[in-house]
User: Fold these one by one.
Assistant:
Number 1:
Amino acid sequence: MNSEKIVFSFFIVLALTLNFGFFMGDIDDFTHHNIYELFVAIVVNLIAMGLKLGDRTQVGAVLLSTSLVANLQLLAAAMIWAYVTQISASGLSADNASVIISLSGGALIANVISVVMLVSETLMSRR
């Protein structure tokens, strides 16, 4: 087995599962969504993106673009969360929570596409 591919696959799947864990729950109730899980999802997505930087294939380019999309949306969600809890006087409301969770849902879709592409590439390389 190739240990580099194992680490690569591990971080892609971990990014998906952490994002899914943060996303699950009522969209307007932030008590169902752990902010530390969002932070860990961002860190793991950034690591997964770093691992994708060395791949110069067409599939690698698409995998990198899915990581960029996921990171952009997760970072936007974190910035909105930081703004509404630390700067804004309104605090974290149901409306703000739904925007944060919706952004993480978009990142979740990007992570799903990444995992599907990883699995399909693995299946194609077997033949």
Number 2:
Amino acid sequence: MTPNKYHLYELSVQSPDVHAAWLEELYKGLTKKHARHLREDFCGTFKTSVEWVKRNPKNTALCLDLDSEPLDYGRENHLAPLSAEQKSRVKILQKDVLIPTKTEVDLISAGNFSFYIFKQRSLLLKYFSSCKKSLKTGGMVVLELAGGPGMIAPMREKKEVALSKTQKFVYTWHQKSFDPITHDAQYAIHFKLPSGRVMKDQFVYDWRLWTIPEVRDALSEVGFKKTLVYWETAHKGKGTGEYVHMEQGDNSFSWVAYVIGIK
């Protein structure tokens, strides 16, 4: 049986338990309060939200995505194993993130560079405005960004990932094109199974690579009181997966960072 592409994706690029813990620590560090209510935008299979509700019996998660397929996968594989009480604290909506949600939350997370789908500045502003309206006073939106020359050069980056104790598959991140005038960029993810079968273009992305100052300016324009940048630390030239508040970054070949807007 061919492994599901969402399962392969989660094994390749996600650490939802680590991310949920980091969001909790980030909010506590900046506000001196506990975040209880998370909204996960572009949530896909919403595994981070599931990990979030597991962390504390007071935690709730609101999961938004327009695509029913990953939501259905998440319901079957991540929501189903939860207890009835935990399930009651997860709300899944097939909904446009450009429309504010009625329930005000402490945190909004947009991971995996997902908001890059908004290629016009007017849409970026509309999204950030929607986030602001959906947050409690003092709440924050956490946006994951990537950039640097290593993010725009045509290339294929491969790595082996464990599928089981005895089998591995190959994950390929394919950077197809980049336009320096528009900052439009196209990417794809491929998988090669232990059998040798290639699953090509399982995920395809058509993004605009927004820069950190553009994002901060847009957040400020819609009324966020403060913006912060959390930059990935490095050891011997490689990212550590740890992020610290910085106002000047290293001129890395490629980088991942978080921009935070505080209401």
Number 3:
Amino acid sequence: MNPVNLFDLASQQARWLSVRQSTVASNVANVNTPGFRAGDVEPFEQVLDKSRVAMATTHPTHISLGSTKDQFAVREVADNGAAKLPSDNTVVLEDEMLKAGQIGSSFQLNTSIVKAFHRMILMAARS
């Protein structure tokens, strides 16, 4: 059985949130590392823009279109012109904590949407 599109989208967002969470954790862990450059993951909207809907091959003789899994690009955060630290580090701890809060909220929203959709499917199946 093929996955329902909403479940696939939610799992893709959960993977993206995991990558973003590990990037933020790396930034926080290296807050005192001299010369460390803070990173962030490309916005999820850009990931969706790059995604393409591909036809599924349901038989081994079907031609595969070579669709690949999306990779989430971790990029260096642009210097925001804040006060230069003596260590030449670009991590702003307050920004990283805000990002961590946003990630937690996004995980909760993602889980709530999946639960609601799952309940809806179960109700439809019981009818």
Number 4:
Amino acid sequence: MPAIFLSLVAEAQAQTVDTTAVLAAAPPAPFVVGAYAQGSIIMAHTYAIRHLVASHPTGFEVNLQRQTTGAAAWHGWYKYPKIGLALTYYDFHNPILGYAFSASPYISKTFSRGEKHDFSFRLGAGLAYLTNPYNQETNHKNTIASSALNATLQFRFEYDYALTPHLGLLVGAGLNHYSNGATTKPNFGVNLPSVVLGLNYHEQRHPLQANPNAPAPADVGKLFYNVSTSLGYKQRTEGDKQKYLVSSVTLAVGRRMNRKSNLLLGLEGFNDRSLKATLNDTTRAGGTQPDVKKAGVFLGHELLFGRLAFDSHLGFYVYAPYKSSTPYYERLGLKYHFTKLLFGAIDLKIHRGAADVIEFKVGAKL
């Protein structure tokens, strides 16, 4: 199954939507198989989880990755990264927290590569299952996560040293994060700074690579327009079990700055139904309620990997009669172009470092 997944990813990303350059045939992309042990601590990033930081979680990871060789133009632009899928198990060594199982696709960018070494940075995102989520009656001390299904983010610096032509010793240091994005509460999330030790098996350590200097795509320097809408849901408090719909509409103009980046400037509107419920609880009978709808302007950046993009936005509310949050917001997410016209995205909206809602977005690029 992991091999099929990686093959589909490689094929999809080889079919880039933003370049018409004719590329030379790329050599086969070899596999790398890894197995690593992990040791961690729980970071006390807020007072509400201090009672849970005494244990030292340990974990184990297996992963399968492919070394890109130039089938798509962006492979050469990023110095031939690896694309992988990691399956990770964690034991928190705490009966309140239990265990975590996660699957996360990732990309690994090499900084330094030699005859016997490879120093790289890895970034991944996926889904995690936590066995002991918060329960008001049976597990009320777990303030980290209130749902079994969570998002996971992972970043890591890795150093692979060749013991033999095919076997490599890997050491690494990074961070694992689990959170449900405030879809249910409490949700303070958990950050696990980790050290990693393991082995990699390389099908071919130094494969041939093609198209190192593929030409820039034709749309560099040109403007484009995005129209999109999103839906998400969230819980207000532990006591209110209802999930409230959160929606948004976005209009943006963008410019392809270079081979790797887009810049965007946009206007968007938000409707968070949980704010209306809060007002209904706090407003005196017959009192006037402010509008809970909000509008904002944002500046955004997209880091491009063929059809896939990592997006980051910083926005400011220009219309917010009900002051329920900070006057600014951030978004981090992954965006994927299904065609030249249609795209989908998953974004995490944040207020001053705290997750507000996970948004599922669809849109069009014009």
